[in-house]
Amino acid sequence: MTHVARIDEGARTGARRRVDALAKPLGALGRLEDLAVWLAGVQGTSAPVPPREVSVVVFAGDHGVTGDGAVSAYPRAVTAAMVREFLRGGAAVNVLAGAHGARVRVVDLGVDDDLTDTPPEVRRHKVRRGSGAIQREDALTVDQALAGLAAGRAIADEEVDAGADLLVPGDMGIGNTTVAATLVGTVLGLDADQVVGWGTGVDDETWRHKRDVVAAALERARPYADDPVALLRSVGSADLAAGTGFLLRSAERGVPVLLDGVVSGACALLAERSAPGAVAWWCAGHRSTEPAHRAALASLGLAPLLDLELRLGEASGALTALPLLRTAALLLAGMTTLDSVAPPVPEQV
Ligand SMILES: O=C(O)c1ccc[n+]([C@@H]2O[C@H](COP(=O)([O-])O)[C@@H](O)[C@H]2O)c1
Ligand SMILES: Cc1cc2nc[nH]c2cc1C
């Protein structure tokens, strides 16, 4: 059972009042105004501060769905190679985190490589190597799905206990857009054509195969549409289970999250289904080119901050949006009020 923390409605009301009183026409800062009010609600103060301790967690795993004919433009071995690169510091997530003052943690939940050359910390939460081929078999056992969820919760706790005031989930895993599309399609009752995208940039023939794979996986998953744990077992993966647990724990601990692309969108959909109201703690950093991401955000009622046609994952969209969140807080804190600079607006006749 997840007990979702309450958003501070008083803080939201106070922030909205302050936003409306600032030295600008009413509503002129557009969605930055809503963002400042959201921050107030999740920080529990009508005077929110820019998030300072931003913790990015990249959940990594491989997917058995890549085994029977390509569903991705890249081979499975890229997952482990990118995990090593995240640790070396040359990936997009490293550059963006460095630019915007965020800490990056990489966690292997299911990479198909023992990664024994990486620090034990990276492998501490490993559930298994790879996952089942979801078009014909379960991705995980129930115990593995539960272990992934528990790992995500534990990781959120570790980050929050270390002082994080904003959590950012990222993902790395060749084939994971096939899994995310299947989860979103199942939960929302959509067909494969409506959720399958181009992922890393597949060609048309690979797209058609990917669509058939998702259609078969959707068939297997339909009976579990209302059961997030069974969904993760049948068509999920350990890394997506961990992403889901991470989001559930954020809502329990009352710590805000800046979501990234289609994988964190799929996890958010599952987490919201298992803990209605949790979505109040999450902000959509961006919308990727994946149709399943669009569908997930629409269903969650989340308007993305950015729509830059990104399709990288690894928290890159969320981190690109991070300065907007800080900007919103700075405007609210730093601007003076209209009544201090101008006489009261005359009554309209
Ligand atoms: O974030 C997204 O929406 C997104 C869209 C397309 C691709 N990706 C990334 O690319 C990988 C999955 O793509 P694919 O084609 O192998 O399923 C995985 O590592 C994701 O992080 C991510
Ligand atoms: C190179 C590469 C980097 C990535 N980062 C996240 N997903 C990725 C997929 C590929 C293929």
Automatic annotation (TrEMBL):
Pathway: Nucleoside biosynthesis; alpha-ribazole biosynthesis; alpha-ribazole from 5,6-dimethylbenzimidazole: step 1/2. Transmembrane segments: none annotated. It is an enzyme of class 2 (transferase). The keyword Phosphoprotein does not apply. GO terms for molecular function: nicotinate-nucleotide-dimethylbenzimidazole phosphoribosyltransferase activity. Keywords: Cobalamin biosynthesis, Glycosyltransferase, Transferase. Its EC number is 2.4.2.21. It catalyses: 5,6-dimethylbenzimidazole + nicotinate beta-D-ribonucleotide = alpha-ribazole 5'-phosphate + nicotinate + H(+). Belongs to the CobT family. PANTHER family: NICOTINATE-NUCLEOTIDE--DIMETHYLBENZIMIDAZOLE PHOSPHORIBOSYLTRANSFERASE. This is Nicotinate-nucleotide--dimethylbenzimidazole phosphoribosyltransferase. It comes from Nocardioides euryhalodurans.
